[in-house]
Amino acid sequence: MLQETTAAAPAAAGGNNAAALQQMGFDHLITQLDAVGWIVFVTLMVMSLMSWYWIIINFVKNIRLRGRGDNVVGTFWETPNAQDAIRFMEEQPKSEPFSKIALDAAQAAAHHQRHDGSRLAESLNRSEFVDRALRQAVTRESSGLENGLTVLATVGSTAPFVGLLGTVWGIYRALIKIGASGDASISAVAGPVGEALIMTAIGLFVAIPAVLAYNFFVRLNRVTNSQFDTFAHDLHDFFATGSRVGEIAGKR
User: Fold this and answer.
1) Taking the model in full, what pTM does it have?
2) What whole-number distance in Å separates Cα of residue 22 and Cα of residue 2?
């Protein structure tokens, strides 16, 4: 009789452990979610979709910018005729930033030339007028590079806490069930608590790609903004003096 009881004890313990492990799965978590749990879970999924959307959009945008930018700038300076260079810029896609900066500078120079002798020319010389147009163009294009970065920063900083909220709420519900049942054994506690911790893991899986992507794109944007500034300075010299990059130095 004693041997039967001793043999039954490990069997019961094994059954409890198996039941506890079954309660630690993601599929079991989904079936046990209440209203608060579903709100947390759906919020994390929406945050993940938003971050991946902007990760893909910004990745594709930067690839296109890197592929076209050097070619656009190089072709502009290598074109012998200024009108042909401006026409080439007009043929570029609207999403290409270097061509838009060059066109703004060209339009500002042409506008100032048409109003030569007027109050505009008296209040601002050609160099100042072109410089102002270039500053506005660079600021506009730099702002365009930051699309989606606020979303990535927000997701990266808040997703872990949203997941932690789901975990805290899940542990709270698990403790209430354990208290009601009166079973405080490890097998009874491990399943519900381990299940609740999955929410924290989901929050981290959502946040980590967003943080890495944010830092990556901030670095790329810093390099691109430097290229905008360099191109804008060269454009200012060209449209303010009428000489291309290198021509002024060559005449000295």
Assistant:
1) 0.76
2) 31
Query: Amino acid letter at 101?
Result: I
Give 177-201 pLDDT, tens digit per residue.
777 766 666 665 666 677 778 888 9
Q: How many residues comprise the chain?
A: 252
Mean pLDDT, residues 59-65 taken together: 90
Sorted by sequence, the CB contacts under 8 Å of residue 109 that are 6+ apart come out as 126, 129, 130, 239, 240
According to DSSP H, which parts of 23-96 are helical? 26-32, 35-78, 82-90
Tokens, residue 66: 């890197």
The pLDDT tens digits of the residues spanning 10-20 come to 444 444 555 54
The C-alpha torsion from 198 through 200 and 203 to 207, rounded to 10°, is -130
Token pair belonging to 179: 């208290």
Longest dimension (CA), the chain: 116
Cα within 13 Å of Cα(206), Cβ side: 30
Chain-centroid distance of CA 37 in Å reads 27
Q: What is the token pair recorded at 119? A: 């109050």
Structure tokens at 124: 């601002």
Average of pLDDT values for 216-226?
93
Helix axes 35-78, 149-181, angle to 10 degrees: 160
Both structure tokens of 202: 């989901």
Mean pLDDT of the chain: 79
Based on the number of CB atoms within 10 Å of its own CB, is 29 exposed (0-12), middle (13-18) or buried (19 or more)? buried
Position 25 confidence tier, pLDDT thresholds 50, 70, 90? low
